[in-house]
TrEMBL record:
<keyword id="KW-1003">Cell membrane</keyword>
<feature type="transmembrane region" description="Helical">
    <location>
        <begin position="207"/>
        <end position="228"/>
    </location>
</feature>
<keyword id="KW-0472">Membrane</keyword>
<dbReference type="InterPro" id="IPR032694">
    <property type="entry name" value="CopC/D"/>
</dbReference>
<feature type="transmembrane region" description="Helical">
    <location>
        <begin position="138"/>
        <end position="156"/>
    </location>
</feature>
<keyword id="KW-1133">Transmembrane helix</keyword>
<protein>
    <recommendedName>
        <fullName>Copper resistance protein D domain-containing protein</fullName>
    </recommendedName>
</protein>
<keyword id="KW-0812">Transmembrane</keyword>
<dbReference type="GO" id="GO:0005886">
    <property type="term" value="C:plasma membrane"/>
</dbReference>
<dbReference type="GO" id="GO:0006825">
    <property type="term" value="P:copper ion transport"/>
</dbReference>
<dbReference type="InterPro" id="IPR008457">
    <property type="entry name" value="Cu-R_CopD_dom"/>
</dbReference>
<feature type="transmembrane region" description="Helical">
    <location>
        <begin position="240"/>
        <end position="261"/>
    </location>
</feature>
<feature type="domain" description="Copper resistance protein D">
    <location>
        <begin position="164"/>
        <end position="257"/>
    </location>
</feature>
<feature type="transmembrane region" description="Helical">
    <location>
        <begin position="84"/>
        <end position="102"/>
    </location>
</feature>
<feature type="transmembrane region" description="Helical">
    <location>
        <begin position="168"/>
        <end position="187"/>
    </location>
</feature>
<dbReference type="Pfam" id="PF05425">
    <property type="entry name" value="CopD"/>
</dbReference>
<feature type="transmembrane region" description="Helical">
    <location>
        <begin position="47"/>
        <end position="72"/>
    </location>
</feature>
Amino acid sequence: MTPAAASLLTFAGLALLLGGALARRRLAGLVGAPPGGWPGWQGAGALLIALGVALQVGGTLTALGFTAPADVLAYLTSTGPGRAALTALLGTAVLLTGEVLGRSSVPVGLGAAVTLWGVAGGGHGAVGGDLPMRAAHALHAGAMAAWTGGVLVLACGRGTNWRAAARAFTPVALGSVVLLSLSGLYLGLHHAGPVQAWPGSGYGTTLLLKLGVFAATLLAAVGVRRTLAPHTASFPRAALAVEAGLLLVVLGVTAVLVGSVPPQT
């Protein structure tokens, strides 16, 4: 369970840090800071990413029996997954620094791209050195973070104009859905083979479960969208909580997939 737990921590951190950074800019003036303020929110995200990367590296080295400091250094500098871990940590530091300073979006965008590239290189995206495959994993993780982080900010932030905030976030959510669908289909076909073969493997069955939860999340998002009608309540807290909860389940199932061996590589 260590790989799955490490991935879950990393994905949750991406949602808070990367998704929070995007939501902070997209919803500026429409939603107040979430609990703990933006520094606390994004600092927690960076900490979760660091813990996830550390758990992944530590679990791998422990399983191999390489726990001496020299072994750790050699792993981080001379192996693909090790360099990917360092890349993810470097990108996280750049992204967090850019958010704290708040002077330009350039370091934030650069840090986000580097972080996602590093995260994608620590799992199935690292197999065989396939750059398009790694890019697809990076896009998939980024889309999950953007959608989940934005919904969490909408649900937890002190909204000043709920309908305007929801409308401002809608393009981000739609873009995330499109990216998740396209990259997910590409990755699923590559790792699990034809769709009709998915029920025949544990990986494929888990993938089908993820699709089911993803579909339920889309239905929940449609329910939230309906609250934008003028005659409805001003803040659909329950509907947002359901959508956020389902998105967290999607993160969890995705983490299980990352920690599983696919039928095809």
